[in-house]
Structure formats: structure tokens, C-alpha cells
Amino acid sequence: MDNARKKLRVCLICVVMAAVVIGLIYYFNDMRSHGKINEGTLVRNSEPDLQDDDFMAWGECNTGAQESRG
Questions:
Q1: 10-41 pLDDT, tens per residue?
Q2: Hey, how many other C-beta atoms are within 10 angstroms of the C-beta on 60?
Q3: How far, in Å, are 3, 11, 12, 70 from residue 16 at the CA level?
Q4: End-to-end alpha-carbon separation of the chain, Å?
């Protein structure tokens, strides 16, 4: 019984170590293929310049009243 537990423990350790090694190989291989990674996201504004008075305050738009479209 003790011998079976020892074999099972060794087998589980080998499986976990193999998963870690495969994960590291995959990670570093993926990093190399992407090259230099810059932080953040580049967003281009295609809208015309908007002024601050073009926007409503949160309290004005959250009143629950129906908007008239007539």
C-alpha cells in the first residue's frame, strides 16, 4: 500500500512538472513571436471635436423622463 502511494506521488509530481515546463515553453515561445509588447491601447478619434457643452450631466440624462422626438 505504501509503495503504491509513493509511485502515485512520483507520477503526480512528474505530471505537474511536465505541465509547468510545457507552459513555460509555450509562454516564452509566444512572447518571442509577438516581439516587443507596448503597454496600453492606441485609439484614434475619428469624431469631430466635441465641446464640453455637447454632453449632459448624469443627473439630467438619468431622470427617467421620456425624450420627445417631435
A1: 999 999 999 999 999 999 888 777 666 566 67
A2: 9
A3: 20, 9, 6, 67
A4: 84
Report residue 42 as a C-alpha cell.
Answer: 492606441
Distance CA 9, CA 4 (A): 9
CA 14 to chain centre: 30
Amino acid sitting at position 54: D
The Cβ of residue 8 has, within 10 Å, a number of other Cβ atoms equal to 10
Report the predicted TM-score, pTM, of the whole model to 2 decimal places. Answer: 0.46
Q: Coil, strand, or helix at residue 8?
A: helix
Helix (H, G, I), strand (E, B) or coil at 46: coil
5 vs 53: CA distance, rounded Å: 73
